[in-house]
Amino acid sequence: MPSIDENGLRVIIVGGGIVGLATATSLLRAQEISQNGEESPRQLQPPKLSVLILERHHSLTEFGAGIQIPPNASRVLCNLGLRTAFEKCVVIPLRAQMKRFDGQKVLGTRPLNEGNWAERNYGSPQWVIHRADYQRLLGEAARAAGAEIEFDKRVQAIDAQSGTLTLVDGTSYSADLIIGADGVRSKVRSAIPANREISVHAFKEVSYRGMIPRKVMLSSPLTAPLIEEPSTTLWLGPNLSLVAYPVAKSELYNLVFGVPRPESMPDHALSAPGDLAELRILFSGFDDVVQKILQLMDRTSIWTQSYLPSLPSWTYSTPADGGVNLVLVGDSVHAFPPHLAQGAAAGIEDGATLAECLTRITSKNDLPRVLQAYEQLRRPRCERIAAVVLQNAKYFFLPDGPEQEERDRLYARAGQGVRKSEDRNDTQKSPDEKGVVKPDITKPFPHPAFLMWLYSYDVKSEVVKHFGEV
Questions:
Q1: Which pLDDT value is given to residue 321?
Q2: Most distant CA pair in the chain: distance in Å?
Q3: 3-state secondary structure 4-33
Q4: Distance of CA 305 to CAs 215, 267, 308, Å?
Q5: Beta-bridge mates of residue 159
Q6: Strand 106-111 relative to strand 9-14, pairing
Q7: Helix (H, G, I), strand (E, B) or coil at 381
């Protein structure tokens, strides 16, 4: 039975995806800062961490697709010292635009990085990136921080009482803390007794995904502007949607078409080859730009969407002092559809929050206490995000009618509200004169106050407040 470190805190992270790698980096970086006395007034000496990531695939290989990195996630990455590395790979979009499917009306436009908007208002930039680059950069960061990564490690079972993790090949591991970053079908989640009856739900939509090379996009005057000026565009139609943006330093144009889930698709399916002819028929009523995009595509694939109901517990600790502890991060605990671009972002916040909590321990016996604090910090925020995601899933697919018209007015008002707050950085005005938008969890998306709550979130300050250290 391999063990990692007979001294200190032995940590196993199940899953070497984006969230697992970011969590490992956050854990080890927070420990380094704490041990060096950086940024910490606390007189604590947390036990040394050893971190092992068990990844079921042969290598760190993400499937080719784009992903957004909103300001709340980029803040964590920048705090980990990764800004320079990421800026070599990301696209920095200027603005986000919502359009009616037929191109007759722009529903709303809000700035992203135009005029350095995101950094000035939320404290960190908005990026988009190719998933393969995202995972590669985080893999390099995790290794540089001291994490070990082992491949072809498929977990068969986890004994929550003994802390023994067994692979399909019979190999077993032990740890003081097992972190489930193993996605929507998490083995770690099912090992927590309170969660054993929880099942994953197939969402009512699926996504057709595709990529178009830059040179192909430039071949038409209809599509060239989309790749020449980096921005994100969302087309909304009856029961259909399309979100698109450039990735890979604008060498590829990323496309995500939202459609109703085919009745023939099994609930357990993850992905399947897509029928491009069928996709073209589904979106035949969209504007000329979308028709040209569909014409330029040479392949597509279907990706399913899943979601989890609210879990009874995010953590588990054995009653005995020094026993085993389990905790969940990312999709293993709050899988939600992509209608707010917060799936990976919320998971990255999870890992950073867990890392900060672990700097508040002096022995293994403190783990149950800080794991409960982690859940108390994360659950309300993630449940609010999940509720907004489900609301957006409805709003993005509304049929034409009074409810759709009200949605369009809401999005237009929200865009105007963002624009009216442009003067908030005028140093000659007081905060009240600037009309600074205050975070408000209760506002609907995309109200400026809700966006402020979502994007200006700072993990470190929230943990400090929770532990009463202010």
A1: 58
A2: 68
A3: CCCCCEEEEEECCCHHHHHHHHHHHHHHHH
A4: 31, 10, 11
A5: 164
A6: unpaired
A7: helix
